[in-house]
Design a protein that fits this description.
Residues 5-207 form the Porphobilinogen deaminase N-terminal domain. Monomer. Residues 222-277 form the Porphobilinogen deaminase C-terminal domain. Its EC number is 2.5.1.61. The chain is α/β, with parallel strands linked by helices and 525 residues long. Helix content is 34%, strand content 25%. Strands 16-21-20-17-18-19 form a 6-stranded mixed sheet. Helix 14 (405-415) packs parallel to helix 15 and helix 16 packs parallel to helix 17 (492-498). The chain is elongated. It starts with a strand and ends with a helix.
Length: 525
């Protein structure tokens, strides 16, 4: 005698409708079933948007526990609500043929507000909110939670609301789609929207075999791609991610989107592959989004509720931002602004025997004023590996470099040919190098190649550590900030300035931004 399959479900009208569909299909195959309704946290907490609750699988967790406790045999879910990684011991048993994938706008009276500057739209979905604001940036989006019926009721009760957004499948399945409703074809749905999923215990061979007959292969292929895309982006219901895959003419078509919470930033991706050759679509598209700023967007969303604990006085590249440890919540901005000067041709009209260049800014200033062929420098001396690399790429061979100006000055006193040197510097250069040289009877001709202007800001009280890259960044920081912090410095010259203001000063192993980041990560591990 076959056992009774206990079907776990949420007790909302839509969830019960979905469970009854599964029940009917299983009974048509000759199985005995029993419905077991269970309330979820998502049904109980209705005063906050889902993305503020910070729980993945908010509608599925209670059913997962019931299954692991052997109180139910299978669980029926809206697949879009299910985390991309299932709990250990639970597997996807089947996906039913997909329904309407679209989002639907239910509106009052008419659609004229779509052309208005001001309108109020209700939704509890971060994805819908972001896409709506991306298309209608002047509209206001308000939160809306509850089951389908209660949400429709709230729309009716709030006189200043113009409309609310629903899943077309949800209002269609229980037969309550109003006449005043339009599908939003331009809005990319949630991954797996419109699909019903059945989960079961991996060890329950009887139930897995029973559910196999309910699986719809095309829906399984498409929703698996969408959910893999979501997983690669590390998203859940707390990120504005849309994804849709469909099969047409033996081809798998995919489109995905990632947005900022306010909809101001948007990264789209599309891909078409032959059926059977489609297995890399999700990975390819996720990487495409990540490489175009998606990682930074995701980090911003994840850290939106975290307080910044590290501040950088220099803006990061996307590659540098990816290097931080997960415990670091970092913000960055340029605390100094560089203005390149006009350099008079008299300084370079003849070959110069000895030239000192201590920053990439000086290189840029020289190349802005002159062509490389005009820069007839016999011996070039640099501070920093990256300055050396740029000089050799753009101007010529570097005779010698050191990691800081004082070490370079001591080297020049010992080994430099001649008794004169031309120093292309900033208006805020340190005294170390020219002072050491002049004390040793080396004449220094200073050429102001660029100006360094302070452009600091007051950082949040939560900031514990600050990253500095030059003495000027330290000086700019202390103009606006007085709190004691940990100073992570790119080199000794920067550290010497930091020690005038802070007790805890740390120096990176090599003078690169990446090495300073490594220093920060070591502290926060």
């Amino acid at each position: 005698m076959s056992k009774i399959i206990r079907i776990g479900t949420r007790d909302s009208e839509l969830a019960l409708w979905q469970a009854k569909i599964v029940q009917s299909l299983l009974e048509n195959l000759g199985h005995k079933t029993q419905l077991v309704p269970v309330k979820s946290t998502g049904d109980l907490v209705l005063d906050k948007p889902l993305y503020e609750l910070g729980i993945t699988g908010i509608f599925t967790r209670t059913l997962d526990i019931a299954m692991l406790n052997h109180d139910i045999d299978i669980a029926v879910h809206s697949l879009k609500d299910v985390p991309t990684v299932l709990p250990k011991g639970i597997v996807q048993a089947a996906v039913l043929k997909r329904g309407n994938v679209n989002d639907t706008l239910v509106f009052k009276n008419n659609e004229e507000f779509l052309g208005s500057k001001e309108a109020i739209i209700a939704t509890g979905s971060l994805r819908r909110r972001a896409q709506w604001l991306n298309r209608f940036p002047t509209h206001t989006v308000v939160g809306l939670r509850g089951n389908v019926n209660s949400r429709l009721q709230k729309l009716e009760e709030n006189e200043d609301w113009n409309g609310a957004i629903f899943a077309a499948a949800g209002i269609g399945r229980i037969g309550i789609r109003p006449e005043e409703a339009i599908n939003l074809d331009w809005m990319i749905p949630a991954p797996a929207q419109g699909a019903i999923m059945i989960t079961a215990l991996a060890e329950d061979e009887f139930v897995l075999e029973a559910c196999k007959g309910l699986n719809h292969e095309e829906t399984e292929i498409c929703t698996s791609i969408e959910r893999e895309f979501l997983n690669k982006l590390e998203g859940g219901c707390t990120a504005p991610i849309g994804a849709l895959a469909y099969i047409k003419d033996e081809e798998v078509n995919f489109k995905g989107v990632l947005l900022s919470v306010d909809g101001s930033k948007r990264i789209d991706v599309t891909r078409v592959k032959k059926l059977g050759e489609h297995h890399d679509i999700a990975n390819f598209c996720a990487n495409f989004v990540i490489e175009r700023g998606g990682k930074r967007l995701m980090d911003t969303i994840k850290n939106s509720n975290k307080k910044t604990n590290v501040y950088s006085t220099k803006s990061f590249t996307e590659a540098q931002r990816l290097l931080f440890h997960e415990k670091v919540t970092v913000e960055s901005s340029d605390f100094i602004k560089i203005s390149l000067n006009r350099i008079h041709p008299r300084f370079v009209k003849n070959e110069i025997q000895n030239v000192i260049i201590t920053s990439k800014n000086a290189v840029e200033a020289l190349l802005t004023n002159f062509s490389p062929i005009e820069l007839q420098f016999k011996n070039i001396y640099c501070v920093g590996r990256r300055t050396k690399r740029l000089v050799e790429q753009k101007i010529g061979k570097v005779s010698h470099f050191e990691n800081n100006a004082k070490k370079l000055a001591n080297y020049l006193v010992e080994y430099m040919e001649g008794t004169e040197v031309t120093y292309f510097c900033s208006d805020l250069r340190l005294d170390d190098l020219p002072t050491v040289l002049e004390k040793n009877n080396i004449k220094v001709t200073e050429v102001e190649a660029y100006q360094t202007k302070y452009d600091g800001l007051k950082v949040a009280d939560s900031v514990e550590s600050v990253m500095f890259y030059s003495p000027s960044t330290v000086e700019s920081f202390v103009q606006k900030n007085k709190a004691e912090i940990i100073a992570f410095c790119i080199g000794e010259t920067t550290a010497n300035e930091a020690k005038k203001h802070f007790n805890d000063v740390r120096i990176s192993k090599v003078p690169t931004v990446e090495s300073v980041i490594e220093l920060v990560n070591e502290h926060y591990i």
